[in-house]
Structure formats: C-alpha cells, structure tokens
C-alpha cells in the first residue's frame, strides 16, 4: 500500500467530484485518478476518497459505453 493508502490500479469514489476513478499514482499528497475507460486525469485529496463498490464501477463503465454507442463509436 502506498503512503496515501491506495494502491495503483485501485478503483475509488471521489466524494468531492462525485466521480469514480482508477488510482494512477500520487504527487504532493494528492491522488491522481483517471476515468475507468480512460481520459483526462484529475487530482483528489485522500480524505475525499473511499473504495468504490463494484456496482459503482459497473454503473460508470456502462454509462460511458452507452454514451459512446449513441454516436456510433
């Protein structure tokens, strides 16, 4: 486990942004997260994070796939 308490690759919920992301690393006391299906990283404070429930991760992934299929991608 890292000094921030989250392993790289862990799926977490960011309460500050109400988002689900995968831990990519940590810099300066902040955790770097990336959306589950890729995209732009964002920084979060460790105290705003909690492990994501499996249903949270699945709902996020389904919503992203649905939005892509809307455009035929």
Question: Topology of this structure?
Answer:
Layout: E1 11-14, E2 19-27, E3 30-34, E4 42-44, E5 49-51, H1 54-70
Antiparallel strand pairs: 1-2, 1-5, 2-3, 3-4
Model description:
The chain is α+β, with helices and mostly antiparallel strands. It has one domain (11-70): SH3 type barrels, CATH 2.30.30. The protein has 1 helix and 5 strands; from the N terminus they run βββββα. Strands 4-3-2-1-5 form a 5-stranded antiparallel beta sheet. The longest helix is centred in the C-terminal third of the chain and has 17 residues, at 54-70. The termini are far apart. 15% of the residues are buried.
Task: Kindly report how far apart the N and C termini lie.
Answer: 37 Å
Briefly note the CATH topology name.
Answer: SH3 type barrels
Class per helix and strand makeup: alpha+beta
Query: How many structural units, i.e. domains?
Result: 1
The ordered H/E elements are EEEEEH
Short characterization:
With 73 residues, the protein is of the alpha+beta class.
Task: Give short descriptive properties of this protein.
single chain; 73 residues; alpha+beta; SH3 type barrels; five-stranded antiparallel beta sheet; 1 helix; 5 strands; 23% helix
């Amino acid at each position: 486990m890292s000094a921030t308490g989250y392993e790289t690759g862990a799926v977490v919920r960011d309460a500050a942004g109400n988002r689900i992301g995968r831990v990519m690393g940590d810099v300066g006391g902040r955790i770097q997260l990336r959306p589950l299906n890729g995209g732009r990283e964002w920084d979060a404070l460790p105290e705003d994070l909690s492990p994501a429930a499996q249903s949270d991760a699945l709902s996020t992934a389904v919503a992203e796939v649905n939005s892509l299929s809307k455009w035929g991608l």
